[in-house]
Every structure is written in structure tokens, then in C-alpha cells.
Amino acid sequence: MTEHTGRTYVVTGTDSGIGAVLATRLEASGARVIRCGIGEAADVRADLTTPEGRGSTVEQVRSLAPAGIDGVALVAGSGNADVAVRLNYFSTVALLSTLRDDLARAPRPRAVVVSSSSSLSAGDADLVDACLADDERRAVAIAGSLVARGRGTVVYRSTKIALNRWLRRTSVDDDWAGAGILLNAVAPGIVETEAARRGVLADPANARVLQDALPQPLGMPGPVEPVAAAIAWLLSPDAGFTTGQVHFVDGGAEAVLRGEAPFATGVRYGPLRMVRMIAWTVIGRLRALRAR
Prior knowledge:
It is a single chain. The chain is α/β, with parallel strands linked by helices. It has a single domain (8-290), classed as Rossmann fold (3-Layer(aba) Sandwich), CATH 3.40.50.720. The protein contains 11 helices and 7 strands. It has helices at residues 17-28, 51-64, 81-104, 125-132, 136-148, 153-170, 194-198, 204-213, 225-235, 253-258, 271-290; strands at 8-12, 32-37, 44-45, 71-74, 110-114, 182-188, 246-249. A 7-stranded parallel sheet has the order 3-2-1-4-5-6-7, sandwiched between helices. Helix 4 crosses helix 6 (153-170). It is globular, with a radius of gyration of 21 Å. It comes from Promicromonospora iranensis.
């Protein structure tokens, strides 16, 4: 088990499932965990679907950890289309943005969010765009329209697609990578949680659809512990050169669905970057000739 002694972490969604397993794992490895949820056992209790609840969460965290925090793991999420937009995307981005300065003061800061293997499927472009434009009201309205038109199942994965894209563009900018804050995601497949049993796995026919939509060669549902272990590693000092990654812990679904496609062609550079690279190559060769 990765060592976390002396580090303080904020973990959301600790009432059950991945969040609960992660919090217990981190505590067993020597960390102090500020558990955030809505149940009696939570250290911080607030409704993350509202701006007031998000603000209250930050205030309570700062009160409980006046010496600062070393990392955050934002696990809280919902498959319910009515709350998914507010909880899965906007609360996650709001908490990260607000706690960024707190993390920047830590010697080895880490932030991890929970995505989903469902983000491999196509989402609703308008909903994704509204999320990335930071327009919560419009995003909620679009989600409501999708539900009314019988397309509510696309809402959840759209929030996770938006989260992945936000992470990829944000993790490498000056406020995050430039400040030494590592920001990554773990994307689980269908795992054995109470929410999955009551939701996507409850109907045998729906479970068969999932086996085609998100094939998991290692089995469906998968275990929760490996997902928590992946998050714990990304929070640890050992993950010191990893940022901007969406790490799929999905029983092989991503490999089945995408195959070798991400690696079939190389990166295509823009004109400005190509000019800079060529210029520096020429300068390097001229310097080498002069040094002879």
C-alpha cells in the first residue's frame, strides 16, 4: 500500500462506494482524511449541487485543516440526470478552482477527479459545450430537455466527457502544472457499488446492453478496491511526474472500444510550433558547426 503518512486529504462522496473505500484506504496508510458527504459519518456535510453547499464545503474544510491540505479526491457523483450536471461537473470544477490556492501552498499537491468509462461513448455536444463555457443554468436546462425527449441516459456521460476535457486543458496551464499541482482523473468501469446494483445493474436487460456498450474483459461488475487504489496512487508522492491523465480502471473497456486508434498516428503539430521546432533545429546545427 502506498504510504501517505502525515498528509491531509479532502475526499468527497465518502458515504458509500468508491469514496468510502478510498477514505478508509488512505487512513489505513497513515493519512488524515476529511470526509465529505451528506451522511452522519461525514466530517463535512453539505449539498454540493448548490453554490451555497460548495461554499460551505470549502469553509468547513479550511476550518478543519487550518494548516492546509495536501490533496483532494472529488469522487461524489450521480447517475441521476436531474442532478448529474450540477454534481458531476459544476461542483467538481468549483471545488477544484476554489481550493487551488490551498493546494498551491502544499509541498507536493495532488488533485484527482472521478470520471467514467462511459465517457468513451458520444455525448450531447450542446451539453458538453455549456459545461465547458461554465454556464450552469444553460447546462441544466439542456439536460432537462434531453430527459424530456427520452435521451436522459446521455446526460451522465456528457458530464464526464466535459470533465475530461476541462481537466486536459486545465491541468497543464500555469495555475496548475506551473504551480506544481498535479491534476488527474480516474475513469472506472462498472464496478460493484450499491449505486450500480440499484441502478444500471438492477435490470438484467439493461446489464446486457452495458456488456455491449462497455465490454469489460476482466468481468462486469468489477471490484471497487482497484479503483480506490488508483486514486490513492495518484494522490501519493510517488505520482510525481503525472498530470493531465484520464486513467481508465475499467476492466479493459477502453482497450476494446478504442483499440490502437489513439496510437495509430503521431501528433500533428500546428504551423507555429513547427516553425519554432525547425528554427531551434537549425540554430542547434549552426552552434554545433561553430563549435568544431
